[in-house]
Write a structure and sequence with these properties.
Blueprint: E1 2-3, E2 9-10, H1 13-50, H2 55-96, H3 106-111, H4 122-133, H5 149-174, H6 178-219, E3 225-226, E4 238-239
Parallel strand pairs: 2-3
Antiparallel strand pairs: 1-4
Helix pairs in contact: 1-2, 1-6, 5-6
Length: 242
Amino acid sequence: MARSTEPYYTDSTWLTLGLVGTLAAFVVLSEFSIWATFLEVDLLQQARTAGVVLDSALAANDRRQALVGGLQLLAFVASAGLFLRWLTRMNRNARALSARGMTYGPIAAAAWFAVPVFQAWKPFEVLRELYQASHPDHIDDWNRAPVPHLLTLWWTLWLLFQGTVALALLADLSAQSIAQMYTAAWGGAVVGVVAAPLGVAAAIGAWRLHALQRRRFHCTAPLRVRHPWPTRATDEVETASS
């Protein structure tokens, strides 16, 4: 018996749900970070006007910022890890669903996010190609498939998020006076304002791409299907050697 080397389609429902769930957590925590930042801004405003702030208020603010910031970072790391895994699977699925001649492979699709400078536009090209290659109404001419405007919004928010995070971090590290800390706190609020819609756009975009591939799966010829977990004997498809 020889094991088939043809690409196979793997259902990504649970992986997509996991990604959407972590993104939802990131959105909620981003909203909490805005609330915590406004409390910090109010505290710093009191320090600017009154010239003094209670030590207990400062300690409570530090604990609140550490908790919310830590949870938000955890949600971001979890969603980023799941996103890269989801991206490679969706790329393999697109190839299994008769998308021939794709430019970016599964590894390259994820790797471009880590390449300086190029990560500003290469991952966008990866996602654009993936949307086109997953379109159910363009089986043979997938490179002519339309790209949703949501993808442009998603990527614009992602670039804004990176920029605001970098500026806010720089302002926070260089803050020495109360006025500088006040400005840095507002920078943190801007990060939260950008992060929340980014998470929403990413979650909707991921689910829509999953839905496109599900529709394309039903439009194409019977494929080798492997379930997310090896619980059935049909998980690995073998063909008799000639």
